TrEMBL record, chain A:
It comes from the Bacteria. The lineage of its organism: Bacteria, Bacillati, Actinomycetota, Actinomycetes, Pseudonocardiales. Gene3D superfamilies: ABC transporter involved in vitamin B12 uptake, BtuC (1.10.3470.10). The keyword Membrane applies. Belongs to the binding-protein-dependent transport system permease family. FecCD subfamily. InterPro entries: ABC_BtuC-like, ABC_transptr_permease_BtuC. This is Iron chelate uptake ABC transporter family permease subunit. The chain crosses the membrane at residues 24-43, 79-96, 116-137, 144-162, 168-195, 216-238, 258-280, 301-324, 330-347.
Automatic annotation (TrEMBL), chain B:
It comes from Actinomycetospora straminea. Its main location: membrane. Gene3D superfamilies: ABC transporter involved in vitamin B12 uptake, BtuC. This is Iron chelate uptake ABC transporter family permease subunit. It is found in: Cell membrane. InterPro entries: ABC_BtuC-like (IPR037294), ABC_transptr_permease_BtuC (IPR000522).
TrEMBL record, chain C:
It is a peripheral membrane protein. It comes from Actinomycetospora straminea. Signal peptide: none annotated. It comes from the Bacteria. It is found in: Cell membrane. Keywords: ATP-binding, Cell membrane, Ion transport, Iron, Iron transport, Membrane, Nucleotide-binding, Transport. This is ABC transporter ATP-binding protein. GO terms for molecular function: ATP binding.
Length: 355, 344, 285
């Protein structure tokens, strides 16, 4: 009775239904497979190289005790941290760009990264001057401070930029202004610090996976497990929000409430990523756009962005460690890739606008 | 869609322009901040001591403080402020964009990157060595911004420019920090220099970059007529017989000299180039013949005032002038956007 | 005043900031007659769109309220309203690169949940909406590749897929050339005739409004100046009153609906005497 609609093959089971999008499924699954490979290669890299096959064998639960210890206690947390942080950033970016209907926005622009940076640095510099007890405080307090700082800065930007609705460009510019102020505070804190702290801080500020253990993995994992399902449920509303305020209201959507909720989720994801690995910039900007081009939809896809984000961070870390050597933070790699991409997007846009 | 006008200054508010009043106010403010800058500092000095140091120095400690430290610092502040204020006018004029600022658009970042490159990698130590690197970096970044501006017919939108500046700054910052990481001494030098400060620079340094700043100011004044015509749009300017390419080139060189010199000597200092032109424009209107000298004056006042504030707020320590301006300038920037002074 | 109309405005006063745009003196009353096409007409800035947007709950009136099926619009959950009342805004924006079928399917949003995004009902409604607007063959094209007239068909198709009894269209013919204006209005006419939908639309062209609407609402300065059939509303007096325009009103030679011909001052030198009243001789049947 119901004539099929071209290009929208149904996927139905009981009350549950969705459109079957083979391209998205392929991108997500292919990305995951690639992620496992790159992750395993990254785990194998280190002072004692372990062959890819051995890594996979250990992960499957059949390795020698020595290898198992090295991998599960020392190397795996770093890679997992990269996966989770990248995924969180990818999803946060996809949500932000979806809500703003603008490919140039990202949680970075909302002030999350710089807010987290200032707060973490404050802990590092102001509290980290004492002995080991204070050092412990810093270990626990730093991620927490980063989280709170990121949330506060984002709240400030959203509060200042929200004015009779959301204008993506106003968001970008207000976010930029706040960022500059926060960066000034950052350089003040850098001046206050002693050399060791400053060097530590500078690495943290660039976003790094160095010396990340299970204590960094667990909080991001918890946040993702809680927030990602909510994001998938709420992202359904973007179907209406995509069409502009009037049309969305006409379709029964409560526009402002939905936007604030969605942005809130993005900010929580980005801030917890920052808390775990420091501000790894441009991942949240680039991966949703790349995923969008790969899946070919009209809005950055959540899951594909998550996979792409994880892939970018883990690959970037691998590149930083093997090609560049030393302790180059992964954030340097993502900026070197991401900043030119942003310029490319700008030039393309400018061309199109004036065409 | 339609015909949203982007990247333009908001329509000028009709108000009486009072150039002489503005000049008087500016000079008065400058006098006040100069006096404060000479009289106020970490080591307490009485007004009498300051007076003696200026007119009848005896070699007392207070004389040294005033003559060797505060006086050069004040002159440097005037120089840097004037350079950045004028650079801001040039950038806003050439990009026809109210948010243009050497700091926001990554030009200071370009200069800073090349300075760090020269000092850490190439081992250059004196200003005469690395000022050329600062010029090269500033010129490259300015060229990038101007090119992006030329890619679109109506001029780039504020958002496009701001994001391009962000991309360039972030990229250079990442590379800069990759260079200084793991290098104890250069990291140490870097973090103090990167804050943007006027102290410990010495009179010799000021004199060394003075010619570059003066040349930049002369070129800026030579650019005035072209800027007034360019304000009508590039096509109209051509129609009126303006050689657009040459005007752009002069502007580019002037911005490079002014920004590069000030970054080389004082580190990256933001927001002066944004705020000074806006303040002056609100007083005397959009004519560049008035904007440029007054923006130099207001820029100098801003930098000196910020420097004095920085000396006072965290006594006995000091807050670098770049930090003070960053913290104070950001609200100004946000207010510009919120009050729709800038069309998005 | 309050009849059995499903949608009505009761003493509404609407404004932006300090300015009251609609219902300035003592609120505006309007019953939308069920099963008819109503066109809201009036000069620029008279509050046509504001009234329509108020009926569509896109604007909240300062005084008075809009009733839908006897319930105040602001008391009904927005999603529930969306199953009865559809809106096509004046300048809807589509995400870049969206395909026609996907956009039309967005009309099903009020009927969907996050876990139920493409039920058999959804599919049937979308297929029918596409077929009805002759856009089935374009289902997999992206919107950017279509002409202005085709795009408007897609948007109407989306509103149709929403499956609402009442449809509010804000200037559905702007930016279209005459042929596509007629095309869109024919579609609206069929919607009413074949589906019994209630349609309210804001239109600029008086002659097209008279042709395709069964009921006209003429507005001036935020008030309703005249309501009724085209023949009742489009009189020479009303046109002068509402639009400040001296005009002859003649019968449309094709449909017999009233047709407004401005008098103006300029007469091209055609050598023909202008027709003052009645139908011209060469009018078809």
């Amino acid at each position: 009775m119901s004539a099929p609609v071209a290009g929208r093959r149904p996927l139905r089971a009981g009350p549950v239904s969705a459109v079957w999008r083979p391209r998205t499924a392929f991108v997500v699954l292919g990305g995951l497979a690639l992620l496992v490979l790159v992750g395993a290669a990254s785990v194998g890299r280190g002072e004692y190289p372990i062959a890819l096959a051995d890594v996979l064998r250990v992960l499957a639960g059949a390795g020698s005790r020595g290898e198992t210890f090295v991998i599960t206690q020392l190397r795996l947390p770093r890679v997992l941290c990269g996966v989770l942080v990248g995924a969180a950033l990818g999803v946060a970016g996809a949500i932000t760009q979806g809500v703003a209907r603008n490919p140039l926005t990202s949680p970075d622009v909302l002030g999350v990264t710089d807010g987290a940076g200032v707060a973490a640095l404050a802990v590092l510099v102001l509290a980290g001057t004492g002995g080991s007890a204070v050092g412990l405080l810093a270990a626990v307090g730093l991620p927490l401070a980063a989280l709170v700082g990121g949330l506060l800065a984002a709240a400030l930007v959203v509060g200042l930029a929200y004015r009779q609705g959301l204008d993506a460009f106003r968001f970008i510019l207000v976010g930029l202004g706040i960022s500059v102020a926060l960066v000034s505070v950052t350089s003040w804190l850098l001046v206050l610090a002693n050399v060791q702290q400053a060097s530590l801080a500078l690495i943290w500020l660039r976003g790094s996976l160095n010396a990340r253990g299970w204590e960094h993995v667990v909080p991001v994992a918890v946040v993702l497990v809680i927030v990602l399902p909510i994001a998938i449920v709420l992202a359904f509303r973007l179907d209406a929000l995509d069409l502009g305020d009037d049309a969305a209201r006409g379709l029964g959507e409560r526009v402002d409430r939905s936007r604030v909720q969605l942005l809130g989720l993005a900010v929580v994801l980005a801030a917890s990523a920052c808390a775990a690995a420091g501000p790894i910039r441009f991942v949240a900007l680039v991966t949703p756009q790349v995923s969008l081009r790969l899946t070919g939809g009209s809005r950055p896809p959540l899951l594909a962005s998550a996979v792409a984000g994880a892939l970018l961070v883990v690959t970037g870390d691998l590149v930083a460690r093997t090609v560049l050597g030393g302790e180059v933070p992964v954030g340097v790699v993502t900026v070197v890739l991401g900043a030119p991409y942003l310029l490319y997007l700008l030039v393309r846009r400018t061309r199109k606008d004036s065409a | 869609m339609g015909t949203t006008v982007v990247g333009r200054l908001a329509p000028p508010v009709r108000r009486r322009s009072r150039p002489w009043l503005a000049l008087g106010l500016g000079l008065g403010a400058l006098a006040v901040v100069v006096v404060l800058s000479i009289a106020v500092g970490a080591s307490p000095t009485t007004p009498g001591q300051v007076w003696d140091a200026l007119v009848a120095p005896t070699g007392a400690p207070s004389d040294v403080v005033v003559r060797e430290l505060r006086l050069p610092r004040t002159l440097l502040g005037i120089l840097v402020g004037a350079a950045l204020g004028v650079a801001g006018v040039l950038m806003q004029g050439h990009t026809r964009n109210p948010l243009a600022d050497p700091g926001l658009l990554g030009i200071s970042g370009g200069a800073a990157f090349c300075v760090v490159l020269s000092t850490t990698v190439l081992g250059v130590t004196d200003v005469f060595g690395y000022v050329w690197f600062a010029f090269a970096g500033a010129a490259l970044a300015a060229l990038l911004v101007f090119t992006l501006g030329a890619a679109s017919r109506g001029g780039p939108t504020p958002v496009t420019l701001a994001l391009a500046g962000l991309a360039v700054s972030e990229l250079l910052l990442a590379l800069t920090s990759a260079m200084v990481l793991g290098e104890g001494p250069s990291l140490d030098a870097y973090r103090f220099w990167a804050a943007g400060a006027l102290d410990d620079r010495g009179a010799a340094l000021t004199l060394q970059v003075l010619p570059f700043v003066l040349l930049g100011l002369v070129l800026a004044i030579a650019n005035v007529r072209a800027l007034d015509v360019l304000a009508l749009g590039e096509d109209s300017a051509r129609g009126l017989g303006q050689d657009v390419t040459r005007a752009r080139l002069v502007g580019l060189v002037a911005v490079t000299l002014l920004t590069g010199a000030s970054v080389a000597v004082a580190g990256p200092i933001g927001f002066v180039g944004l705020v000074a032109p806006h303040v002056v424009r609100s007083l005397v209107g959009p004519a560049h013949g008035r904007l440029i000298p007054l923006a130099a004056l207001v820029g100098a006042v801003l930098v000196l005032a910020a420097d004095v504030v920085g000396r006072l707020v965290v006594r006995p320590a000091e807050l670098a002038v770049g930090i003070v301006l960053g913290i104070v300038g950001a609200p100004f920037f946000v207010a510009l956007i919120r009050r729709r002074m800038v069309k998005l | 005043m309050t009849g059995a109309a499903r949608l009505s405005a009761q003493g509404v006063r609407v404004g932006y900031g300090d300015a009251v745009v609609v219902g300035g003196t003592d609120g505006l009353d309007l019953d939308v007659v069920d099963g008819t096409v109503t066109a809201v007409i009036g000069p620029n800035g008279c509050g046509k769109s504001t009234l329509l947007r108020t009926l569509a709950r896109l604007l909240v009136p300062r005084h008075g309220h809009v009733l839908l099926d006897g319930r105040r619009l602001d008391a009904v959950p927005s999603r529930e309203v969306a199953t009865v009342l559809g809106v096509l805004p004046q300048d809807p924006t589509a995400p870049e690169g969206i395909r026609v079928a996907d956009l039309v399917a967005r009309g099903r949003h009020p009927h969907q949940r996050w876990f139920r995004q493409w039920s058999a009902d959804d599919e049937a409604a979308v297929a029918e909406a596409l077929a009805w607007t002759d856009m089935t063959g374009f289902a997999e094209r992206t919107l950017d590749t279509l002409s202005g007239g085709q795009r408007q068909r897609v948007w109407i198709s989306m509103a149709l897929a929403q499956g609402t009894d009442v449809l509010l269209l804000d200037e559905p013919t702007t930016f279209l050339d005459l042929a596509h204006q007629v095309d869109v209005l024919e579609l609206v006419g069929r919607l009413h005739r074949e589906r019994g939908r209630t349609v309210v639309m804001v239109l600029h062209d008086l002659n097209l409004a008279a042709r395709y609407a069964g009921r006209l609402v003429a507005m001036r300065d935020g008030e309703v100046a005249a309501v009724g059939t085209p023949h009742e509303v489009l009189t020479e007096d009303t046109v002068r009153d509402v639009f400040g325009l001296d005009a002859r009103v003649v019968d449309d030679p094709v449909a017999g609906t009233p047709m407004v011909v401005p008098i103006g001052r300029h007469r091209p030198a055609t050598g023909r005497t202008p027709v003052i009243t009645g139908v011209t001789e060469d009018a078809p049947g």
